[in-house]
Amino acid sequence: MAHLGFVGLGVMGGRMAKRLLAAGHALTGYNRTKSKAQWLLDLGMKWGDTPRAVAETADAIFTMVTNTEALQSVTGGPDGLLAGLGPGKIFVDMSTVSPAASRELAARVAARGAQMLDAPVSGSVATLEEGNLSIMVGGDRDAFEKIKPILQDIGPKVTHVGGNGLAVSMKIATNLSLAVQMLAFSEGVLLAEKSGIPRETAVEVLLHSVIASPMVKYRGPFVLKMPEEAWFDVNMMQKDMNLALEMGRHLDVPLPTTAVTNEFLTTARALGLVKEDFAVIFAVLARMAGIKP
Amino acid sequence: MAHLGFVGLGVMGGRMAKRLLAAGHALTGYNRTKSKAQWLLDLGMKWGDTPRAVAETADAIFTMVTNTEALQSVTGGPDGLLAGLGPGKIFVDMSTVSPAASRELAARVAARGAQMLDAPVSGSVATLEEGNLSIMVGGDRDAFEKIKPILQDIGPKVTHVGGNGLAVSMKIATNLSLAVQMLAFSEGVLLAEKSGIPRETAVEVLLHSVIASPMVKYRGPFVLKMPEEAWFDVNMMQKDMNLALEMGRHLDVPLPTTAVTNEFLTTARALGLVKEDFAVIFAVLARMAGIKP
Amino acid sequence: MAHLGFVGLGVMGGRMAKRLLAAGHALTGYNRTKSKAQWLLDLGMKWGDTPRAVAETADAIFTMVTNTEALQSVTGGPDGLLAGLGPGKIFVDMSTVSPAASRELAARVAARGAQMLDAPVSGSVATLEEGNLSIMVGGDRDAFEKIKPILQDIGPKVTHVGGNGLAVSMKIATNLSLAVQMLAFSEGVLLAEKSGIPRETAVEVLLHSVIASPMVKYRGPFVLKMPEEAWFDVNMMQKDMNLALEMGRHLDVPLPTTAVTNEFLTTARALGLVKEDFAVIFAVLARMAGIKP
Amino acid sequence: MAHLGFVGLGVMGGRMAKRLLAAGHALTGYNRTKSKAQWLLDLGMKWGDTPRAVAETADAIFTMVTNTEALQSVTGGPDGLLAGLGPGKIFVDMSTVSPAASRELAARVAARGAQMLDAPVSGSVATLEEGNLSIMVGGDRDAFEKIKPILQDIGPKVTHVGGNGLAVSMKIATNLSLAVQMLAFSEGVLLAEKSGIPRETAVEVLLHSVIASPMVKYRGPFVLKMPEEAWFDVNMMQKDMNLALEMGRHLDVPLPTTAVTNEFLTTARALGLVKEDFAVIFAVLARMAGIKP
């Protein structure tokens, strides 16, 4: 494509933009705090003064922001991304937001003659940097086909899962298991530990067992030593759980393990651990079991 | 070792005995229903008329039975295994039983001058037949070292995790995640499906995501088509959950996801699904979500 | 007070208005569907063409609507209640809405020089008609003192619990126990019944035990025979549970029994029972226990 | 009846025995620690050297012990109560034990030509002393009719609920709501408190609301000030919850609120609060909400 735009150049978004630049794309970017994007300007990215300006410049515009409210903030209003869209343009939101909000936004994008795709990613910063990110895409197939080669410059596994909003739905349906698996894993470690098995041994056995999902493999060792910086903090994890529970209520799907696990994320928050990686749910349960995390 | 004994020649136990025979060991076996062991007699196994007779004949005696009650049944009484034990003999229980019961039995074995190991296995019939079974062992290290080569004829990965009862503790601490992961997985599939994503697509995406533990990988497809025969049925799964919950109460470890998930296994039982593979927990949740399993 | 206004003349609101008329107050009313308020016009109520018109006419204006969205609908916009408020007027919302939304609205009311009270009620239509309704009030004490005598014409027990939004907070904190107590009661009835005790006997014993709250006393018999018309349906009950869970997340209070119970209300919804009294949660659990409700 | 016997003269049993003496019955008693029964001997009770001796002396024998194990201990063996039973005698167990164990014991009593009733009580020491205890009875109706006048000397409300074991079943089905209602109540208090409502006010409002069961009324104030001595401690409460969960598994009744609440009793235990009244579940949740109990 002739020209790309990127709005939201934080930890994930910035690295995605970098990969697009590295792949040879012309790119205009916008971030609420310009200074945080200076390193990308140094790499050749152009600056757009507003999300609208970015959208006016580019043929395909990507967003990567924190939540539904942030997405509404960069897309709405006179300086918003929507105002800069028009026929032929494709807007790709890579954030994890409410599927309902995503679909509503897609309708407004369509009303301007443009097309929208939701394209949330699965994986962490490390996965992204290694070039192993998985990307699910929701929206019209023709728009998908046009955008697919660009998305592959961000991550190799790009899958079309259905219409607008369905990729974020699938993402949320996946992510609820992250927290639940981590809490169940913690239950197992604490049972073993209080039985008399050293925590290290318990973790090692579990990491080699049939319950060792990739998530358990990279996050399990955190119960021995928490990471300096959260990979995915309690706040972000609970945001996804809340989206899942909201979907469950709208679609009439009971979510028993999600609901119970979410209360332990709330406990983590209450205990001041909101900025920790959500693996800290182990520490919450350990306290409840009367032992040192 | 000069001679081995095996008590409990059911689906798992019989195949273990077969592997021991295939490895060249002399073996005397006992099963409550003799006819079910005929195929092993045809393969060269000798018959012992009682568990006690097997124990008197052999230097190392293995058991593989359904639960704590079955273990007490084959070990106790005048014809029981215990009565046939004496100095120098090693008794290896491969069943998944209550850690407390296992430790108590180990004490009675020691009182007769023999040694006991708990050696529960991780994996299904298929894993066993492929020769990939993992075996955790609890008990004295010297007894472990003597038995290790024999266990390796059953499955290659043999790990000593600590004193008596700790291997079954570790097994139970692992297994609770099987059911919890399966229920969380089902929540995700149903959320996706009611969002409008075909069930097949949802399963495929989840099986390639970070939540895809080996358990999820082989059991996830069961939500599309249940297996003819259960790999691990609701009854067996709930037995392990009950053991976990019992341990949690004795050791003061709260087990929130285990407790909640167990109520759905009870529901499966109430709905007449007790003989199905525990993946049927998906069907239970599907009914509660008002859709056809 | 010289003149009262009432917006939202449904099942509860209409009967409240009737009591105000019966107490001799001059009253102007508004309802989305005018025909449903005809009986009140016949009793002497005057009609206001819009919520704004009602607010312009009256000194104290009451609202009783379904939820937060309905409240925003009757208060906002050019025809909304807010536009008709001014210095000296008092706006009393008797609905159960989000405490945050209530506080935000109170600020907007204050900006127009008027005062707002949140005054949710505790009790059903029957309690109201018997003149036994309890009313909790949040907001400034001086406004409370002015309105108190009027509220006492609706129900005798009027309590000031604190500042704006705190009465709805207290209401929601109370209501979560309705659903939880009902589900726990159902667990007890089903345990007794499957033990072999006739359901009627089980209910009778429970209704005379220490767990028999007023709620259990009037709703318990519903497990023998559901009422023709819901007193408080699944939809309304879940609305309050969702408000509680939302508060729990904002205030960092884990709500384990609320969270679990809410998933059974979702199940009721999925099974097509959304319009039934929430006592139907018994029928949901009965199905899960494999017996006829 | 000519002569009564009583085994288990602790806090509850002792006061029951006192009431029987006060009603003019001849009574022989036994307690593991004789010194604790001295006050009853001073009131005219005779001493039996073993449970068997008591059973041999008396026509109707009552037991009141801690749990299933204690009941088996006083009834079994050569000195046990069973050995002293014979035709025409009636054995009344007032403890709360496993319904299955109660039924099994009733069969053994019948084999000796005697009859057994299970007659658990509902209410605390205070209720007993005020003469307001409720007693549910399971077993043959003819035996019930003979014992009824004696039970009425202990407490006025005596109800026959069905065959052997059904009274303890009904008791357990009732008691699960005690813990669940207390946890739900705690959720409400903490939500209110973190909203800004003083804890005292929140408790007062809740105690006057429709959720105020007798249990909530007498135990609710404990969240303001715990009692010096537990009325019903965490250990006893969890014993009943475990019996309920065990019944649920045998009878295939899912018990979602019971299961979740029980994990918080386990947490109380882990935090060293096992001897506190089970109202301490509030303190557990308060810690999890990050505030001082």
UniProtKB/TrEMBL annotation, chains A, B, C, D:
Keyword DNA-binding: no
Residues in 6-phosphogluconate dehydrogenase NADP-binding domain copies: 4-162
InterPro entries: 3-OH-isobutyrate_DH-rel_CS, 6-PGluconate_DH-like_C_sf, 6PGD_dom2, 6PGDH_NADP-bd, HIBADH-like_NADP-bd, HIBADH-related, HIBADH-related_NP60_sf, NAD(P)-bd_dom_sf
Biological process according to GO: organic acid catabolic process
Domain 3-hydroxyisobutyrate dehydrogenase-like NAD-binding: 168-283
Keywords: NAD, Oxidoreductase
GO molecular function, one term: NADP binding
Gene3D superfamilies: N-(1-d-carboxylethyl)-l-norvaline Dehydrogenase, domain 2, NAD(P)-binding Rossmann-like Domain
Pfam families hit by this protein: NAD_binding_11, NAD_binding_2
Transmembrane annotation, as ranges: none
Active site: K171
Protein name: NAD(P)-dependent oxidoreductase
Native species: Tectimicrobiota bacterium
Lineage: Bacteria, Pseudomonadati, Nitrospinota/Tectimicrobiota group, Candidatus Tectimicrobiota
